[in-house]
Design goal:
With 488 residues, this protein is an alpha+beta fold. It has 3 domains: 146 residues, no CATH class; 230 residues, Hypothetical protein af1432 (Orthogonal Bundle), CATH 1.10.3210; 76 residues, no CATH class. It contains 18 helices and 10 strands. It has a 5-stranded antiparallel β-sheet. A 5-stranded antiparallel β-sheet has the order 9-8-7-6-10. It starts with 11 loop residues before the first helix and ends with a helix. It binds fe (ii) ion (2 copies). One fe (ii) ion (FE2) binds next to loops.
Length: 488
């Protein structure tokens, strides 16, 4: 979590940045307190530190404004007029607050300074104590707050019109988002259990993979859009789920039946599980790896086999997961690691070949400790194309490149209208592969606008020419664009 900055606020612009930085903390700390209030009585010692942490964040806000309000509008949270950044770190807390505020029809929570820890705990207890079936939760909540001497925190009713049924695209995107973050949290649970030496059940991961498959079979671009999320701190979880999504999408293109897809998905989620046994100092090392570091990192495929063998009830699924863990850094020409004694006879499992591709692509497009600047998606593909026949099986690589597209999802494009746009869905027709669906994010002068979709195959009826065409690919990292804002 970000350190609370202690600077004084000078201008509205600085204030907005300040709110963005603090907004994340407010959302996370409020959610933690509410969640714990749902478990413990308000005097329980477990609530002391979380309520103090919330109060610390509020105190920083109150240095510059007497009151700060957390507002709900449609599917977004705002602090005053500034939309709270949604990223991987805040995703769970953000979704929790959205859901719980909506369920209680609360449109805003206002904090008038100073707020003390006891008041914060009272608020938490009152908030979670309101039955969502109550005829007027905001009124009842406000009444109970006053009765509990909680005057510095007030609530307002959510008075926006009832939500319109979402169009199918938004609906799918929501479902994809939920599925993605659930998969991350179930993987976290498994890793935690493995580290603690507890018995591990595969069921949760299997269920997560099955929901990924369900979303993917309906439409795949929402999930592929989510793979543009690369979170440095949560790299391992994030990477494993991304690899699983790429592997499953490729498996689907190859026509694998659903039962095989499940096994492919689960084994790809676990491909790097061996990394949990490598010391953090090595994995997170900010400098180049030494030879000794590499020797240890290269152990992770075999360590993965060892870890997976501890899972209760060995079956086909655990066996194939072990194989994929062992083989995912082997190359098509049998080089790579672990070093094999007899390369000529080694026949890599089909799933391992798929995971090797998915793994390389996601790793190249992520910034990691040992690769600070990630490749752009198209650059990663061209590097992979050079490795056809050596690292990768040519036929599979071809299908993968087709699937990811000439302009993969998340690529930043300059259009001939001078607008900037992000690819959000590839064009399935090979003849139109250079005309994806995009989100236009700036006007021709480069001013950021509310993103709107555009299909680059669209023809202007007057001129008979395409309305928009790609001029070139730009580096998203140089333009300070937060992909998470557009894809989740
Ligand atoms: Fe790996
Ligand atoms: Fe990996």
């Amino acid at each position: 979590m970000a350190q609370i900055p202690s600077f004084q606020i000078a201008s509205p612009q600085v204030y907005n940045e300040h709110v963005l930085a603090l907004g994340k903390d407010l959302v996370i700390r409020l959610q933690i307190l509410l969640k714990l209030c749902g478990i413990h009585e308000r005097n329980n010692v477990a609530l002391v530190r979380p309520s103090e942490r919330l109060v610390e964040t509020l105190a920083v806000f109150h240095r510059t404004a007497a009151e700060v309000a957390l507002r709900l509008s449609r599917d977004f949270l705002y602090i005053d007029e500034v939309r709270v950044r949604y990223d991987i770190e805040t995703a769970t807390s953000y979704n929790y607050l959205l859901d719980e505020m909506k369920r209680r029809r609360i449109g805003a929570i206002s904090f008038k300074g100073p707020v003390d820890a006891v008041t914060a705990r009272t608020f938490g207890a009152v908030f979670v104590g309101i039955e969502t079936t109550h005829p007027d939760p905001p009124y009842e909540m406000q009444k109970r707050l006053v009765a509990g001497n909680c005057f510095s925190i007030t609530v307002e009713a959510y008075d926006e019109p009832p939500e319109q049924p979402l169009d199918t695209i938004m609906d799918e995107r929501k479902r994809a988002k939920r599925t993605y973050f659930r998969a991350i949290s179930s993987l976290k649970g498994i890793v935690h259990a493995l580290k603690e030496g507890q018995a591990v059940e595969l069921r949760r991961v299997k269920r997560s993979v099955q929901s990924i498959i369900d979303v993917m079979l309906r439409e795949e671009f929402s999930l592929l859009g989510l793979t543009t999320l690369k979170d440095y701190d949560e790299y391992l979880y994030n990477h494993c789920i991304n690899v699983s999504i790429f592997a499953l999408t490729l498996g689907k293109r190859l026509g694998l039946p659903k039962s095989h897809l499940t096994n492919l998905g689960v084994s790809s989620v676990f491909h790097d599980i061996g990394k949990v046994e490598i010391p953090h100092e090595i994995i997170d090392k900010p400098t180049e790896f030494t030879e000794e570091d590499w020797r240890q990192v290269k152990e992770h495929p075999s360590l993965g086999v060892k870890i997976l063998s501890r899972i209760r009830g060995l079956n086909d699924l655990t066996m194939v997961s072990m194989v994929v863990s062992f083989e995912h850094h082997l190359r098509h020409d049998s080089k790579g690691y672990p070093a094999l004694r007899s390369r000529a006879e080694w026949d890599m499992h089909f799933f391992s070949r798929i995971v090797a591709l998915a793994d390389q692509y996601d790793a190249m497009t992520s910034s990691r400790v040992y690769q600070r600047v990630p490749f752009s998606p198209d650059k990663a593909l061209s590097v992979m194309a050079e490795r056809s026949g050596t690292h990768f099986e040519p036929a599979l690589l071809k299908v993968f490149v087709n699937m990811v597209g000439i302009y993969p999802i998340g690529t930043l494009l300059l259009l001939d209208t001078k607008e900037l746009a992000l690819v959000f869905d590839t064009n399935p027709t090979p003849a139109n592969a250079n005309r994806p669906r995009v989100l236009v994010i700036t006007d021709p002068s480069g001013n950021q606008i509310e993103a709107r979709t555009a299909d680059l195959t669209e023809i202007d009826a007057r001129t008979g020419r395409h309305k928009r065409s790609v001029v070139k690919v730009l580096d998203v990292h140089k333009y300070n664009i937060n992909l998470a804002e557009y894809f989740i």
